[in-house]
């Protein structure tokens, strides 16, 4: 048997994992980007041909009346005008899914504006065709690895993390990585043990590895004694994990009586399985970019509507804050250059590609009738970005009205995660609520990228600067009378809660796994963040 070998990295998500190694080769994050135009043309053509074949089969089994409707749809799909419109968009750089949806939306708008009733009625068939072809574009599947294995590699993308089934255990060891990256945050939220910054190490053949995401230690070929110890630590931690799931329906207060609300951050629908919403205020942040695994998903209004509706129905009348796509930075991006952390990210990208914004706006407006929806915009820097987005929501609302589709205008608020926005908050009077994204606020305030291990120290030592800024901004928010919360990771970290309370914050949105520890900590603190004296 090979000798035991120990490495020291940094813990990024606590917990121990033991399993067979899956050694990942470097994978570029490309699943949302169009490949090359000829491949996108082929995707479009296959989806159209596949839809025609399916319609023919359906028509053959249908009554004469239904068959004639289906025949009409087949004729439309055979008409080169529509496919050529989509093909032209592929020629300008769009992926097949987006090209198809935008071409069809423009085409449908022409039918809807007709004075002729019969022509207007054809729009319904076109909607059907649009959905059918879109559903046929399944997108490239995200590369996965065997369940229960420990992922070892240079880095792991959020999409690979989210596509994997972690229910049977497993963990992550990264040669590089950063504790502030999105994937580390996802790992903590899902309680997947993760160690970063081990440096590259050699793995010969099939090997097993033990990792401790709390201490950052990694052991190759652990001895039986080592394994026994790790297992006993894991068992002794169990009651804490169970307590995290215990429902709590009483109002949460600090020791001196200030009311505090706790909401949850959701990255994936499985995050809400088994959560009792009785003990929480609602969902304070739903990161929609993690719910889409292909350009076809982003372009699919009905799929988005279905997901948002499901979450809203789960929450009943509790508020659900759905954040619009925050693509860019270290999250996957559709066909666009310049989408770095300092580039076209979040609302900037959506306004640069309003087709995406309009699709998501319609899905949100439609889902709003199923619960208590709030819509949040990411990466807002200027009041004009908020104004433009609200205008687009109003335009899409008028469109839905014309189509007689039920809808409701939700309150629209903003993330405060860019320092300029925090400093100038008084100019954002049009925002209906604010939520501090401390993960990004720290990186932009300190000029230290959250995914760069080399500046991780600067990132973690910036807390005093952040609290000074938060105090200033919470004060402005109070003068505007708009509700304010924190949804960055600081809200789930006990060491920062006293300072957040001191800044005047009373609403925290955090990973479900952190609820129990933060709830219990708050009862031991006063509203000014000081420790309560035991009576
Ligand atoms: C944040 O920046 O704090 C935040 C909540 O958004 P994200 O982590 O998704 O960038
Ligand atoms: Mg952010």
Automatic annotation (TrEMBL):
Pfam families linked to this entry: PEP-utilisers_N (PF05524), PEP-utilizers (PF00391), PEP-utilizers_C (PF02896)
Required co-factors: Mg(2+)
Positions of Mg(2+) binding: 417, 440
Catalytic activity: L-histidyl-[protein] + phosphoenolpyruvate = N(pros)-phospho-L-histidyl-[protein] + pyruvate
Location(s), subcellular: Cytoplasm
Any single GO CC term annotated in Swiss-Prot or TrEMBL for this entry: cytoplasm
Residues of the PEP-utilising enzyme mobile domain: 148-216
Keywords carried by this UniProt record: Cytoplasm, Kinase, Magnesium, Metal-binding, Phosphotransferase system, Pyruvate, Sugar transport, Transferase, Transport
Positions that bind phosphoenolpyruvate: 287, 323, 439-440, 450
One record GO biological process: phosphoenolpyruvate-dependent sugar phosphotransferase system
Annotated SUPFAM superfamilies: Enzyme I of the PEP:sugar phosphotransferase system HPr-binding (sub)domain, Phosphoenolpyruvate/pyruvate domain, Phosphohistidine domain
Domain (Phosphotransferase system enzyme I N-terminal): residue spans on this chain: 8-122
Active site (catalytic residues): 182 (tele-phosphohistidine intermediate), 487 (proton donor)
Domain PEP-utilising enzyme C-terminal, first and last residues per copy: 250-526
EC number(s) on file: 2.7.3.9
Any GO MF annotation of the entry: phosphoenolpyruvate-protein phosphotransferase activity
InterPro entries: PEP-util_enz_mobile_dom, PEP-utilizing_PTS_enzyme, PEP_util_C, Phosphohistidine_dom_sf, PTS_EI, PTS_EIN, PtsI_HPr-bd_sf, Pyrv/PenolPyrv_kinase-like_dom
Class of enzymatic activity (EC top level): transferase
Family, as annotated: Belongs to the PEP-utilizing enzyme family.
Protein role: General (non sugar-specific) component of the phosphoenolpyruvate-dependent sugar phosphotransferase system (sugar PTS). This major carbohydrate active-transport system catalyzes the phosphorylation of incoming sugar substrates concomitantly with their translocation across the cell membrane. Enzyme I transfers the phosphoryl group from phosphoenolpyruvate (PEP) to the phosphoryl carrier protein (HPr).
Name the record gives this protein: Phosphoenolpyruvate-protein phosphotransferase
Species name: Phyllobacterium brassicacearum
